[in-house]
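Structure ticket #2291
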Amino acid sequence: MNEWGQLLPLALTIALSPLPLAALLLMLLAPDGFKAAVGFSIGWFLGVLFSATLLALLSSLLPHDRGSGSRALQVAVPLLLGIALLVLGIVQWHDRPSRGADVPLPRWLSALDRLTPARATIIGVGYAAFRPKNLVMAAAAGVVILGAHADPTGIVISVAVFAALASITMLGPVLAYAFGGAAVHGRLARLREWLVRNMPTITVITVLLLGVFLVLAGLAAWSGQLLA
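Resolution: structure written out below.
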């Protein structure tokens, strides 16, 4: 299992976050909200970059080698994370609101369309860098990256690409809004309404799919090591 076969599901687990995406679209489609949305998306990227870099550095200080222990981590980390996500997804599916029920949104979400660009950037950094799920995925990415590279240049490039992939759902809508015209604006508005209306179900399905993806990645890494 190559490095990016392991890193991609970790980056997607961060990127596929319905609530932050709904928050971004709320800012993006508000009057004069484009600059705040740009700040939030850049802050998200910087937050992921910060957490992945910091956790990779901390991981490099731990007493480990690139032998059997490192290979075992490359199997165990995605496998255990995948199992945890599957359990979480099953619990969330059981507790999801019934069809047609009103879904209360966090109160802070309704205030995002009034943020200044500076505050939106700070919120983006904090939400991306210190959200528990993101921290776990960034830590796992640090283990994978350090296991795949011995040179600092390769580590820096991998961390930067990982952060970009984990931020694609934040950066993509902003670029689409900036260059896509009125038709794209309408699609983004419909996407926001759909996300808000189906938030619990989308969250559960995303968690379950990513859990399956991570379990398969861990099993593939294990089988690759057995055949090596």
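Closing remark: The first helix runs from residue 3 to 15.
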